[in-house]
Design goal:
Elements lengths: L1 E8 L2 E9 L5 E3 L4 E4 L6 H18 L3 E5 L11 H11 L6 E4 L1 H10 L12 H11 L1
Parallel strand pairs: 1-5, 5-6
Antiparallel strand pairs: 1-2, 2-3, 2-4
């Protein structure tokens, strides 16, 4: 089974794919990547971003996809561009995309720690979301 966790930070989507192998071990796909939306107010760039994200999701061919939910209100609320990115990803036609709350993932991880580490620190939340989908 292969899952894809996505974290959106400002104008960038971080995609990390986690695969459960036949012996039950977990591997992080080398195809994990980050894709940036260059100019959010230019429709050409938005369409290019959508095409890039959809192409990458097609390549990853995940069984399930989840986006880490961002805060919509308060002092630490996410920006409008990140919600635009989220909606583009949610419109992915080939799979359903779930939105998961960080607290839900954190509670899951207390009982089911991730047996592998992300290559980079910035991939950690996407890895946690992908691991949550496997549980």
């Amino acid at each position: 089974m292969r899952t894809c966790g996505i974290e959106i930070i400002n104008d960038t989507a971080l995609l990390l794919c986690l695969e459960k192998t036949g012996d039950g071990s977990l591997e992080i796909s080398k195809l994990s990547t980050k894709i940036k939306l260059e100019e959010h107010d230019n429709s050409v760039h938005v369409k290019q971003f959508a095409a890039s994200i959809y192409a990458q999701l097609n390549i990853l061919d995940a069984d399930s996809i989840a986006i880490i939910k961002r805060q919509s209100k308060g002092q630490f609320s996410a920006g409008a561009v990140s919600f635009k990115i989220e909606s583009i990803i949610q419109c992915y036609p080939n799979k359903d995309v779930r939105i998961v709350a960080p607290a839900t993932v954190k509670a899951f991880l207390r009982k089911n720690p991730v047996p592998t580490q992300a290559k980079y620190k910035y991939q950690e939340n996407a890895l946690n979301a992908a691991h949550f989908l496997l549980g």
